[in-house]
């Protein structure tokens, strides 16, 4: 039944995000992103309006292509040419966006600007050049976005597939929180062209194709990020430091620590410009000076609040597990449509801040040298009155819908030589799908379903890693 619920084809529902999300996030279980299955589906369906494929005119000479891949690409029309901001993941998706742009201008591309070096923003540049040699702008630290040691690239690639649901069928997919579920990734990176103009750390103000344009350094989701300001049009291009979801302060695919405090400060800096239009790195532009400025201020406050609460808790001696369930968004921000946890989550952010500032150790001597998993599982079984009783408890948890507890018990049983490991695996699969059905956070949902599929197919080892 649960699998059927996950596999049900999601029909797009045109609903205003503010209407469908009101009070839904605050009804989650234990501060996590779990709600009733029907509510989770309605929320994810509503979020899909944020990346419907279209070209949006945000000023007389500024156009934003949304939904042609995961990220946005923008075109600014100047006197004798156009400027492209971000170029999607690969040349095929970029070419489709550029074709749509060409309905508004056939002028040559004079410049390409990369807001940061994530692959979904830089991989399609070749589709825009048309034999020209445009200036390509990047920051001094351009290329430092990933920040994860290549030594762990193998496992990171596997976790990336799960987070984004790249191996899920169309029937199992919803979306990626800030992007469509299905995108053309076969040529990712094949259109990349390296920057040939470096934006200094002090920023840059210049004129391109008759357009006054400003480059401002703004580290956040990546260390090499910048945002772009058009002073005459009062349009601000935020890159991935803003999109309509609680920000991904930590990505479950695996990332190095993202400087959360710098991220908050960079968004606050953006708010000082009081833009008439805010163009995110993903999702739809926000129009209106009051709306755009308020969104940026709220975003900065939300990030800063999570950081401050976590740091205060750390200094009070609290560990990451306790804090992940205790830290909350300020009440006035919880139902803001651009802060619903479709992509990032507060608990993940709290854990990332903790480990980023202090490392893995929580200060409790009990956790300095914990028992190895097999021995701990044996002790848990003894406490339960034997493996048979532990198995019964696992099955009972599943039947009661206590899916997280069922998962944790199945992970103990997998280590026991006298356990029914096939049954433990089956329970874990069902519990994962039970959690997925209740998830409105897209990466969590995708990861649960992807992992369940891998378990069911036998692709994972006997230890289920």
Automatic annotation (TrEMBL):
<dbReference type="Pfam" id="PF14863">
    <property type="entry name" value="Alkyl_sulf_dimr"/>
</dbReference>
<keyword id="KW-0378">Hydrolase</keyword>
<feature type="signal peptide">
    <location>
        <begin position="1"/>
        <end position="25"/>
    </location>
</feature>
<dbReference type="GO" id="GO:0008800">
    <property type="term" value="F:beta-lactamase activity"/>
</dbReference>
<dbReference type="GO" id="GO:0018909">
    <property type="term" value="P:dodecyl sulfate metabolic process"/>
</dbReference>
<dbReference type="InterPro" id="IPR052195">
    <property type="entry name" value="Bact_Alkyl/Aryl-Sulfatase"/>
</dbReference>
<dbReference type="InterPro" id="IPR044097">
    <property type="entry name" value="Bds1/SdsA1_MBL-fold"/>
</dbReference>
<dbReference type="GO" id="GO:0018741">
    <property type="term" value="F:linear primary-alkylsulfatase activity"/>
</dbReference>
<keyword id="KW-0732">Signal</keyword>
<feature type="domain" description="Metallo-beta-lactamase">
    <location>
        <begin position="70"/>
        <end position="282"/>
    </location>
</feature>
<dbReference type="GO" id="GO:0046983">
    <property type="term" value="F:protein dimerization activity"/>
</dbReference>
<dbReference type="InterPro" id="IPR001279">
    <property type="entry name" value="Metallo-B-lactamas"/>
</dbReference>
<dbReference type="InterPro" id="IPR029228">
    <property type="entry name" value="Alkyl_sulf_dimr"/>
</dbReference>
<dbReference type="InterPro" id="IPR038536">
    <property type="entry name" value="Alkyl/aryl-sulf_dimr_sf"/>
</dbReference>
<dbReference type="InterPro" id="IPR036866">
    <property type="entry name" value="RibonucZ/Hydroxyglut_hydro"/>
</dbReference>
<protein>
    <submittedName>
        <fullName>Beta-lactamase</fullName>
        <ecNumber>3.5.2.6</ecNumber>
    </submittedName>
</protein>
<dbReference type="Pfam" id="PF00753">
    <property type="entry name" value="Lactamase_B"/>
</dbReference>
């Amino acid at each position: 039944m649960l699998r059927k619920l996950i596999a049900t084809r999601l029909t797009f529902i045109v609903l205003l995000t503010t209407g469908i999300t009101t009070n839904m996030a605050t009804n989650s279980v234990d501060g996590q992103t779990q709600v009733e299955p029907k509510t989770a589906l309605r929320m994810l369906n509503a979020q899909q309006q944020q990346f419907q494929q279209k070209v949006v005119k945000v000023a007389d000479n500024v156009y934003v292509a949304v939904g042609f891949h995961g990220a946005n690409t923008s075109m600014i029309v100047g006197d004798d040419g156009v400027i492209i901001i971000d170029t999607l993941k690969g040349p095929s998706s970029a070419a489709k966006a550029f074709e749509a742009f060409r309905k508004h201008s056939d002028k040559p591309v004079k410049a390409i600007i990369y807001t940061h070096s994530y692959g979904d923003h830089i991989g399609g540049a070749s589709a825009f050049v048309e034999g020209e040699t445009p200036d390509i702008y990047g920051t001094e630290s351009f290329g430092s976005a990933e920040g994860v040691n290549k030594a762990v690239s193998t496992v990171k690639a596997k976790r990336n597939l799960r987070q984004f649901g790249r191996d899920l069928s169309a029937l199992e997919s919803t979306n990626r929180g800030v992007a469509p579920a299905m995108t053309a990734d076969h040529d990712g990176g094949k259109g990349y062209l390296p920057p040939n103009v470096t934006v200094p750390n002090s920023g840059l103000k210049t004129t391109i194709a008759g357009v006054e344009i400003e480059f401002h350094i703004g580290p956040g989701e990546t260390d090499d990020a910048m945002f772009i300001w058009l002073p005459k049009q009062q349009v601000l291009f935020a890159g991935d430091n803003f999109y309509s979801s609680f920000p991904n302060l930590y990505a479950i695919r695996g990332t190095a620590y993202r400087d959360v405090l710098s991220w908050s400060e960079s968004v606050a800096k953006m708010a000082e410009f009081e833009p008439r239009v805010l163009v995110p790195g993903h999702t739809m532009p926000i129009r209106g000076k009051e709306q755009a400025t308020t969104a940026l201020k709220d975003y900065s406050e939300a990030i800063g609040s999570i950081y401050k609460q976590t740091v205060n808790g750390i200094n009070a001696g609290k560990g990451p597990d306790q804090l992940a369930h205790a830290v909350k968004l300020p009440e006035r921000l919880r139902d803001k449509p651009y802060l619903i946890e479709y992509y990032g989550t507060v608990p993940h952010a709290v854990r990332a801040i903790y480990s980023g500032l202090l490392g893995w150790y929580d200060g409790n001597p009990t956790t300095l040298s914990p028992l190895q998993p097999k021995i701990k599982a044996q002790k848990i079984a003894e406490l339960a009155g034997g493996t048979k009783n532990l198995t019964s408890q696992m099955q009972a948890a599943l039947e009661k819908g206590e899916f997280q507890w069922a998962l944790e018990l199945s992970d103990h049983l997998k280590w026991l030589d006298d356990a029914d490991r096939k049954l433990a695996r089956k329970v874990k699969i069902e519990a994962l799908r039970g959690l997925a059905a209740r998830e409105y956070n897209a990466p969590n949902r995708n990861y649960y379903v992807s992992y369940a599929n891998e378990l069911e197919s036998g692709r994972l080892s006997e230890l289920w890693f």
